[in-house]
Write a structure and sequence with these properties.
The protein is an alpha+beta fold. The chain is built from 6 helices and 4 strands, in the order αααβαβαββα. Helix content is about 50%, strand content about 10%. A 4-stranded mixed sheet has the order 2-1-3-4. About 25% of the residues are buried.
Length: about 140
């Protein structure tokens, strides 16, 4: 099942239009709050937060070779964002389950049919919503 994804620039543009309308109505506070909300949504969907996603099969092969974990995530997931921010620029294999049916199937298989993310696969073993510190400990020195 494909889910809706809104490009970040469209969110910024939409937020600007809505905020401008609120300013003309004489509500600058509401305008600022709405613009911040739209900017936050754009940030959550931004490739700046998450690197380019690859498919599950494309991620599992190199992970088996280099030992780097595979992270299954989806846009809008606050736990995924927390993991990404706390891991910084660590090199992991990121799979967006909303763009990859095989990734969504792998997450459902690991989580009793639920699409619970982040699900991190380390050495072939899935871990649902692990502590970011633990994930960092699983990284090889070259990652």
């Amino acid at each position: 099942m494909m889910r809706a994804w809104i490009p970040p620039m469209l969110l910024v543009l939409s937020g600007s239009v809505v905020a401008t309308g609120q300013i003309f109505k004489g509500s600058p506070g509401t305008a600022a709050a709405l613009l911040l909300a739209f900017l936050a949504l754009a940030g959550v969907n931004s490739p700046l937060i998450f690197p380019r996603s690859i498919g599950a099969l494309e991620a599992q092969r190199p992970s088996a070779v280099d030992g780097r974990p595979v992270v299954f995530w989806r846009p809008g997931c606050k736990y995924c964002i927390r993991l990404r921010i706390r891991l910084g620029r660590s090199q992991l294999h990121w799979v967006n389950i909303w763009r990859d049916p095989a990734g969504a199937a792998a997450v459902r298989a690991a989580n009793d049919g639920n699409e619970t993310v982040p699900t991190v696969v380390v050495a072939g073993q899935p871990h649902t919503n692990p502590d970011p510190k633990w994930v960092r400990e699983q990284l090889s020195p070259s990652a």
